[in-house]
Every structure is written in structure tokens, then in C-alpha cells.
Amino acid sequence: MNTKSTLAKLLALIFTMALFATACGSDSGGGDAVDSASDTADAVEEAMDEEEPMEDEEEAMDDEPMEEEAMDEEPMEEEEPMEEEAMDEEEEVELTQGAGTLAAIQSRGELNCGVSTAAVAFSELQADGSRTGFDVDFCHAVAAAIFGDRDAVSLVPLTAQERFTAVQTGDVDVLMRNTTWTQSRDTDVGMDFGPTTYYDGQQFMGRASDGFGPDSGVAEIDGAIVCTNAGTTTEKNVGDAAGVLGIDITLQGFDDFDQVTQNFIDGSCDVITTDGSGLVGRKATQQPAGEEWVIFPATPISKEPLGPTYGQNDSGFADVVNWTVYATIIADEKGINSGNASDIIGNDEFDPEAQRLMGGEGELQTAMGLSPDAFQQVILQVGNYSEIYEANLVPVGLKREGSANAGWLDGGLIYAPPAR
Asked: How far apart are CA 149 and CA 151, in angstroms?
């Protein structure tokens, strides 16, 4: 392109020189000058014509990198693999943040509920192969809410070390397994927690013959062999307490509390420790004749809020579990029980909240993917909170009165948000 410009300037110069020669020279000289200028102009034009292909070639050469770049960009135009990956991620988000678990349970026709292998009054295997207990009844309650059938549930016994993996792998939908809500489990382990069904705290149990009494403190376990469940907050708490007090203990962990208690009975353990409710249950059912087991200290060394546990980011299923628990609490507050739950709708003695909860006008269960009478079936088939508590925990000596597990109107912590 620079060559063409130069030739044009040269041509203009030659014409100028030719005109100058014509003006200054003879007739013959002038004619020769014109002819010479004309010949020169023709040569220049011919040269310019010859240069054009070179210019075209330069343009073509200039274009070649652009064509290569375009070729390099062609694979980017094929967005399908990236779109499929994005779709997969979107589907995963929808499953984990929507009603994925609930839909899967409804399609399966059965709730998979993880429970303790052995926890007196909370999850106990009976001689006929059935399983009973406070936690077990809340499994039945969720099944009743989803299916209208308390028995549409598979109870899956899990050790403390197995429980969270079972949720993460989908082997169980929810844990009703005396599981403490903690920060690390809520974040690092990746669980979500529902409302607390039982407020507990860690204590110890030893033999009176070994010098332990109700007024004993943690410092008195110095030098003892202390046994508990492996992989639990209980194990961590006792280790922390011993460190703070500067005492030496030998800590032994077992997969379930049946093993812990048996080792205590056999004399292999000096002291055992777990949630106070578990110790009360063991003392009530397994204390040998002629021995006195003592639970101490009077004030637990930790807070152990126990309740349903499930996978993260599945609000649809979480709502069902949470509001099933809340329904048992609200029903208890309003005097709705297994004997009268079918008579609430249209009964002026019960307020609009009670009517809604039992499936009457303004009910909200349908919006949750349940039948309108879902919570009515929970109360009819399983009972309200007091009924569940009294059937399982009172017989082993765990009273509600004066404890954190009394209703909020009675000075306790059991409380539910309003059903509206």
C-alpha cells in the first residue's frame, strides 16, 4: 500500500516536469519531452497495475492471522458440553434447595429414619423385633405427616460414627438419634438441624461404693477409667473438662452405649458419661441388685440440644420435619391430643390456629406438598408432645416439670412458632 502512494507521487512529479519542459524548450524538444513524459506515465501506470496483486497478497496475508484466530475460536462456539454441565449444576441446586428429598421419599413410599442402636427410652429394640422410644415416635410422626401412615417408615439403627455418613450418602433421610446440634456439625460436617425435641446435658455415673455421690464434681474422676461412645460430643467434652481441671483420666470409647454400660457393669470402667437422660435410663433399667449407681454433678457440664438432623439446603423437606415437630408442640399447648384431634375442625372451642393446623380453613400443609390433614394424622396416630414424652421418658424417671423440657408457659424451653 505504501508503494502505490509513492508511485502516484512520482507520476505527478513527471507530469509537472513535462509541462515545464514544454514551456521552456523548442518545438521538437517539447514534443520529445511530452512523449517522454507520456511514456514514463504509461510505465508508472503499468508498474502500479503490477503492484496491485502484491497489495492483494498483502491484504490476504494480513487476513490470514484473523482467519487462524477465527479457527481458534471455533471450538468456543460449541457450547454444548458447558451448557450440559451448567444444567447438571442447576438440577443439583434445585434438588438440594427445593423439595428433592421429599419428592424422593414420596416416590419411594417410605421414610428412611436413622435412630440409635441402643438408647434407653429413646430407641430400644424389643423382643419382637420392633423398636420403641421417644426418637422412634418422632420418626413415626414424620411418616404420618408425609403419608398419613405412621408405619410408612424404615428405622435404620446407626452408631454415632455412622450417622452423619448415612445422611450424606442418602442411606437415611433424617436422623432422630439423640444428636447434639453444634457449630462444627452445622458447618464443617454439613448437617442442618431441626427444632430441639429434648434439652439435655452431659453428666457422669459412678458407683457409690467407689466414693461417688450426687454432690461429686468432675475433679473426683481424677485417675479413673472413663468410658463413653466414640466419635461423640460427649467424648470431646470430657477430654476438655479433664484438661481444664488438670486431671488425668483414661478415656475409652465404644461404638454404642450398650457396650459402655456392660463394661461398667463388668468393672472395666470406673465411670461412664453421656447425656443425663441416657444415664437416668441406664440406672433405671440396668443397675444390678445390691449396687447403687450415682449420677453427678447436679448441674451438667455441657448443653446438649437434641433433635432431628438432615442434609443441608433442602428447605422443602426441612419444613416438613420441622413443622411436624412444631405441630406436636402447638397441639400440646392447645389441648389437642390423639383422642380429640379428629374433632377440632368446625369446633368453636378451638381457635383459628388450631383449625388450620388440623387441616381446616386457611391450612398451610398443602403448600408444603402434604395433604391438608397431615398434622391431624400426626396427632391422631402418634400424639402431641406431652403424649410422646410421657409414653417414653416418664417411665424411666425423666420428668418434664421443672426441667428445660417443660413447655414455655410452664417455665421450660419447649416452644414453637405460630402456625399462620
From this structure: 5
Beta-sheet pairing, 191-193 with 131-132 = unpaired
Pairing of strands 198-200, 225-229: unpaired
Contact 156, 114 (CB under 8 A): yes
Quote the CA–CA distance of 165 and 361 in Å, as a whole number: 41
CA 200 distance to own-chain centroid:
24
Give the pLDDT of the chain (420 residues) as one tens digit per residue.
444 444 445 555 544 444 444 444 444 344 444 344 444 444 434 444 444 444 444 444 444 444 444 444 444 444 444 444 444 444 443 443 344 999 999 999 999 999 999 999 999 999 999 999 999 999 999 999 999 999 999 999 999 999 999 999 999 999 999 999 999 999 999 999 999 999 999 999 999 999 999 999 999 999 999 999 998 889 999 999 999 999 999 999 999 899 999 999 999 999 999 999 999 999 999 999 999 999 999 999 999 999 999 999 999 999 999 999 999 999 999 999 999 999 999 999 999 999 999 999 999 999 999 999 999 999 999 999 999 999 999 999 999 999 999 999 999 999 999 999
295, three cell numbers:
449420677
* Beta strands 153-158; 111-116: pairing state: parallel
Q: What is the CA radius of gyration of the chain?
A: 42
Grid cell at residue 384: 402431641
DSSP 68-83: HHHHHHHHHH--HHHH
**What backbone torsions phi and psi does residue 201 show, to the nearest 5 degrees?**
-160, 150
Q: Which of 129, 142, 136, 137 is nearest to 115 (CA)?
A: 136
Burial class (CB in 10 A: 0-12, 13-18, 19+), 276: buried
* E strands in 72-145: 111-116, 124-125, 131-132
φ, ψ dihedrals at 128, nearest 5°: -85, 5
Q: How far apart are the first and last CA of the chain?
A: 81
| Grid cell digits, residue 121 | 427410652
